[in-house]
Amino acid sequence: MLCLLLVFHIITCLIVNINKWDFQNQHNIKITATGQKNTEAKGSEVWLYELKVDGVNKTLSNIDSLNPEAWEIRDSYLVSYKEQPASLEFTFLGSSDIELLVSNHPYSGFVNIEIDGQSQEFDLFLNKDDAKKISVKLLNNGYIGLFNYTIFCFYSYLLMCSLLLSITDEEIKNIDLKKWSFSIVSMIFITLLVPALMVYIVDPLQFYRASSDQIYYAYERYQNPGLAKNYEYDKIIIGTSMTENFIPSHVDKMLSGKSLKLSMAGSTIKEQSMMTKLALNSRETDTVIWGLDLDALRKDANETQPITTFPKYLFNSEKFDDLNYLLNKQFIVDSWRKLRNRNGEHYFTADLDTLYNWNKSYKFGEEYVRESYRPESIKIERRDPALKQNYEENIEENIIPLIEDNPNVKFVFFYSPYSVVQFRHWYEIDPLIISDIKEGKRNIFLKLSKYKNVQLYDFSANKDITSNLSVYKDTIHYSEEINKLIIESIKKQSYLVTPHNIESTESELFKQILDFDMVRFINLKAN
Fold first, then answer.
1. Which residue ranges does UniProt annotate as crossing the membrane (predicted)?
2. Which pLDDT tens digit goes with each residue over 208-224?
């Protein structure tokens, strides 16, 4: 009898731990810029710099559920100053505490942080600029998981004991332990097989096969691997939100062929590299159009989002890792809903031309750039001493291996053209930032120019783009019009970086920076 109980206990442990995410520390967090402010405050702004869960950074600007109408990305930070109250909601795993780094300044308002239904409100107002850390203790769901586990085992033992007491000692002696154990394991296997098979057949992420219903998942990092594996293309478009407004049909017309956009908002170079590798391994590709975002280049070469927002298991070829998808609670529910002709809240209908395109969601113009700009942040932000090193390591570790492994693929890189306001902003913080960027870009050119299958474009010298604020919604994000211009320039090979023009390009940008009247720009905002 003790042997049977021991076996049953082991099986119970396995059952509980198979779907361990249900019993680990999964939390729901909601951060709300309430729109309320201190009587002395000049505004109700909320600047979110960094979120740490158990000491691990979670980049807030990469949250896929970000509402662009209410929150804006500023140099990897999130800012709310309009359309308030404005909320961010997401889930994460953690065990003890959360630390949120926010800004305190004369324009700061109230922020409400709600975790698992328990909320706290903070007044961020301070009569001087500063950065403040807010620490919030979490309800440790590990204890809840342990409690659930204990209850599960207790009732299981009761059931097992009742079963054993109902049979005689003679019958117990005749039990074939191997057959009994095999039966239990078979039941467990069948229990897992049914939902996994449902996810495989329905395939809400189109991970195994393309769907004809044009219904896509809202989060690019989850949807793109399926597109790369199962859709037809010979060209791919890679990058951050700066590349989301490319129209594949326009690219096809200009460059000939069939293109697929695989952009990921707020993505790091490491994530983009993984996406590119998957696409190159999935389809015969002749061209990679890759937008190099200066903000992405300055991040660590190995940085990716946590598994809750960047599912690495969808980007590799390990079949066993597919279980993370097939047995994922969310996709089991989504598959069941789809079988009942009910799409989940995270799915929408679109065509590949408009998929993840945000051009129609914003207004563009100098007034909107001015409205989004906050000069007080100059006193908070600092020069990053690791910028040049991160530029170099991102190229060497995440880009050059792909170039060398695919000599028959043409790699077309371009720097996403930030507005002159952004460059002037960096100049106001520290002129050496501009020098660091210039040196970093020069090193990138020297490394990439060694390869015959590489082109690098830089539109910084084009004053009609960088100084034309009518095509920007903020200091870095430009309209679909510029994406079209970039493709047309690539076709004509205009603004191609060469040893003969690299200095003049940087000189022209520096001239624009010095000529830009930041005082006028700020004063117009104040008026």
1. 146-168, 180-202
2. 999 988 899 988 999 99
Cis peptide before 85 (omega within 30 of 0): yes
DSSP for 269-292 reads HHHHHHHHHHHHHHS--SEEEEEE
Quick one: pLDDT band at residue 146, thresholds 50, 70, 90? Answer: very low
| All domains of the chain in start order, with CATH | 1-20+152-202 (no CATH), 26-141 (2.60.60), 215-366+386-418+441-462+479-500 (3.40.50)
Residue 430, token pair as written in the block: 């520290």
Q: Label residue 97 by pLDDT band (50, 70, 90).
A: low
Residues in CB range of 221: below 8 A, 6 or more apart: 64, 264, 267, 271, 305, 309, 310, 311
Burial of 457 (0-12, 13-18, 19+ CB in 10 A): buried
Structure tokens at 345: 């809240």
Residue ranges in 121-268 assigned as alpha helix (H): 141-165, 169-173, 177-202, 220-230, 248-255
Residue at 457: amino acid letter:
Y
439 close to 298: Cβ distance less than 8 angstroms:
no
Q: Do 252 and 258 contact (CB within 8 A), yes or no?
A: yes
Cβ count near 26 (within 10 Å): 17
C-alpha distances in Å from residue 122, one per residue of 31, 46, 66, 101, 110: 11, 11, 21, 12, 6
User: Of the spans 67-71, 234-238, 349-353, which averages the highest pLDDT?
Assistant: 234-238
Q: Give the integer Cα–Cα distance in Å for 221 and 202.
A: 19
Residue 510 has phi, psi (to 5 degrees) of -65, -35
Cα 460–chain centre separation: 26
**Percent over 90 (pLDDT), the chain:** 51
How much helix, strand and coil, in percent to the nearest 5, is found in the chain? 45, 20, 35
Residues 6+ positions from 327 with CB-CB distance below 8 Å: 18, 19, 192, 195, 196, 199
Q: Is 509 exposed, middle or buried (0-12, 13-18, 19+ CB in 10 A)?
A: buried
- Residue range 148-165: average pLDDT? 58
77-91, 144-158, 189-203, 492-506: which has the minimum mean pLDDT? 144-158
User: What value does the mean pLDDT of the chain take?
Assistant: 83
**Size of the chain, expressed as the number of residues it contains:** 527
Q: Residue 381: which residues within 8 A CB-CB, separation 6 or more?
A: 75, 429
Longest dimension (CA), the chain: 97
Q: Is the pLDDT of residue 365 over 80?
A: yes
